[in-house]
Amino acid sequence: MNKIRYQKLQEIQTLEFTLVELNLYLDTHPNDQKALREYNTYGKQLQKSRAQYEAMYGPLCNFGMSLSQYPFKWVEEPWPWDM
């Protein structure tokens, strides 16, 4: 597999993990402004990273969660979970 592709996917997974943890924390500490700022900052980073990945390698999700270029890219392998 392409090393850059793998690194980009790892970056996305790291951001997703961070956001899950911050989300869980904010569930019990909804007034923590610093945590909320971090959550929003990481969320923007994730959106940017996902857009970059999908522009280079195709969609990360199907069923309308990610748009596709022509021809339909979802059928191209490897799929994100296969890496």
From TrEMBL:
UniProt xrefs under InterPro entries: CotJB_dom, Spore_coat_assembly_CotJB
The entry's keywords: Capsid protein, Virion
Residue span, Protein CotJB domain: 7-82
Matching Pfam families: CotJB (PF12652)
Top-level taxon in the UniProt lineage: Bacteria
Name listed for the protein in its UniProt record: Spore coat protein JB
The organism of origin for this protein: Garciella nitratireducens DSM 15102
